[in-house]
Every structure is written in C-alpha cells, then in structure tokens.
Automatic annotation (TrEMBL):
Keywords: Membrane, Transmembrane, Transmembrane helix. Residues 304-348 are annotated as: Disordered. The keyword Transmembrane helix applies. Residues 304-322 have a biased composition (Low complexity). The chain crosses the membrane at residues 25-43, 63-87, 99-118, 124-145, 152-173, 193-216, 228-247, 281-300. It comes from the Bacteria. The lineage of its organism: Bacteria, Bacillati, Actinomycetota, Actinomycetes, Micromonosporales. This is Uncharacterized protein.
Length: 348
C-alpha cells in the first residue's frame, strides 16, 4: 500500500511540474535588470541635461513610459530568478509564500529604481510620482512571477525583451525606412510614413516576440518533458503586448500628474502627449493580437494529424488460423496416423 501511494504521489508531482517548478531565470534576470538600469540611466541623463524647467518636465513625460515597461519586466525576471534559486536549493514554498516572496522581490527592485529617479530632485513632487510609478510597475511584475505558470511568465518576459530589441533596431534604421514608406517633403507624406513605420514596428515586434516566447516554452518542454496546453502558448505570445498594456495603464494612472503637467507647457505639447499615448496603446494592442495569432500558428504546426490505426497482432483467431484448422485436413491427418492391418488370406 505504501509503494502504491508513493507511485501516485510521484505521478502527481510529475503532472504538477510545469506549473510549480520555476524555470532557471538567472539570465533573464540579468537581461531584465540591465534593460531597466539602461532605461533609468537614459531617463536621468535626459532629464538632468535640460536647461529650463519646461524642457525638464516634458523630458520626464517622454522617458517615463519606457522606464515603466522595463521595470515591469525586470521585477518579474528577478522574482523568477529568486524562485528558481530556491527550487534548486531544494526549497519549495507554498503558493501564498511564493506569491509574497515574488511580490516582495519586485518591490525591492522597484524601490532601487525609484531611488535613481527621486534623487534627481528630492524637493519636488514630479520625480516622486515617477519613482512611485516605477516602483509600482516592478512590484506588479514580481506579482506576475508569483503566479502558477512561471514558464509562461518567463516566456512573456523574453518576448518583451525581443520587442524592445526590434524597436531599437528599427529606430536606427528609421531614416532609411521612412523614404521607402512614402516620406517626402510635405508634412502630410511624413505623417503618413510615420504611421506606416509605427505599424511596421508593432507588427514585426509582435511576430518576433511571439516566436521568442514560443521557443522558450519549447525549450522548457525539452528540459522537463512536460508541455503546456496551446492556450498558454497563445497567452505567452500575447504576453509582450499585455505587458505593454499594463505599462501604459500605469503610465496613465499612477503617472497621470506628470503627463498633465507636461500638457500644460503648451497646446502643442498637449497634442503631442495625447498622440503619443494613443500610439502606445494602439501599438500594445497590435503586439498583443499579432503575438497571440503567431503563437497559435506556431504551436499548431507541431500538432500531428490523426494517424491510421496500426493492425493488431495475430492472436490465433484470424482467417489464416482458420485455414490451418480446416476439418478435412484434420481428418486426413488422423487417417494417416491410424495403424494399417494387412489381411493374411488364411482362416485361423
């Protein structure tokens, strides 16, 4: 009875493995932390490099969305690494403890990021708002890492990094791509080309992010021998866009005062802020849907179609066996085995 119970327990552990065992996210944590540090350093350098207060405010509004998105991914990535290290050390905390630990890790990362912004000017509320938004983003990212399907969260984070890399590469190629997209000497043609460029960046980012997330899940399946269902593949593919949407929501809510203050600089700046907010939201939606669709297609290609049933092995009841057991043949064999008597032709 004890042996049977142990087998059932082992089977249950193998079944729960994909959900409970955290993936090795040390490399992801390093990439996420570097991304966050780079965005915060760039924001700090841009803000402190402005000569007047108005340009300082607008620069802060421009830098905040990127810093928030990077902090969201960094909080999740570092929390995944902490959970992975605990698993490798043989410690498997419960659901509540794991969630609290992951959320606390994200909060610590967010506090470090907020400190780099708040110290720009500790007397004003502007940088306190930005720092609080960054801390909130990292905390939410850590909470996402505390959910059950850690490998899906890790795949979404890798996809978000890929979307960021695509954006950086296209920004370097922007001057070459805009003329190919119809940019000319008129403002109308330049605006149209900018719209096409934004669409290209969103679609390409969604494609690359979904492929990266898909490959991460496939590699995790190869290591553990357990796979996740196709809806989770779709969720991982849409994950980069969903993270962008969460970042945009935080920017519009927690950082709303910064955007409002930037909009008060001038009517032109107000229009620019509204256009940028709309463009970021539309881009996040495109990345989400393109990523989910791409991931579904990718996992669908690996699903085999129905196979023909293999013939069952012969068990002695098939037509060939019936032919061997022919009654006439059995009777002939029996007659051949009977002893034959030869008549002597004499009476006894």
């Amino acid at each position: 009875m004890n042996e049977a119970d142990s087998e059932v327990k082992a089977a249950g552990s193998a079944h729960d493995g994909p959900e409970r065992a955290p993936s090795n996210g040390v490399l992801l944590a390093a990439v996420g932390a570097l991304w966050m540090a780079g965005m915060l350093w760039s924001a700090r350098a841009t803000i402190t490099g402005r000569a007047d207060a108005e340009m300082e405010v607008t620069s802060t509004a421009y830098a905040m969305p990127g810093a928030v998105s990077a902090s969201l991914v960094a909080g999740a990535a570092v929390a995944l690494a902490v959970l992975a290290l605990l698993a490798r050390a043989g410690r498997t905390p419960g659901v509540t403890v794991r969630f609290a630990l992951a959320t606390g890790t994200g909060l610590c990362i967010g506090a470090l990021g907020a400190l780099s912004i708040i110290t720009i000017n500790t007397e004003g509320w502007l940088y306190a708002v930005v720092g609080g938004t960054v801390a909130a983003a990292a905390t939410i990212g850590g909470a996402l890492a505390g959910l059950r399907n850690t490998r899906v969260t890790a795949a979404a984070c890798w996809g978000a990094v890929a979307v960021f890399v695509v954006g950086v590469v296209l920004s370097f190629l922007q001057d070459s791509l805009l003329p190919a997209l119809g940019a000319g000497d008129t403002a109308e043609s330049q605006a149209g080309a900018a719209g096409w460029f934004s669409l290209l960046q969103s679609v390409l980012g969604g494609l690359v992010g979904a492929v990266v997330a898909y490959r991460v899940l496939r590699r995790a399946r190869g290591r553990s021998g357990e796979d996740v269902g196709w809806p989770l593949y779709a969720l991982a593919g849409a994950g980069p866009g969903l993270l962008l949407m969460v970042g945009e929501v935080l920017t519009r809510t927690a950082g709303a005062r910064v955007l409002e203050l930037a909009g008060k600089v001038s009517e032109l700046e107000l229009t620019v802020q509204q256009m940028l907010s709309t463009a970021r939201l539309n881009s996040a939606l495109i990345v989400t849907f393109v990523g989910a669709f791409t991931a579904i297609i990718a996992v669908g290609r690996t699903m085999g179609g129905p196979t023909a049933a293999e013939p069952e092995p012969e068990t002695g009841t098939g037509p060939e066996t019936e032919a061997v057991a022919d009654p006439d043949e059995i009777e002939r064999d029996a007659r051949a085995e009977e002893p034959q008597t030869v008549p002597s032709g004499k009476d006894d």
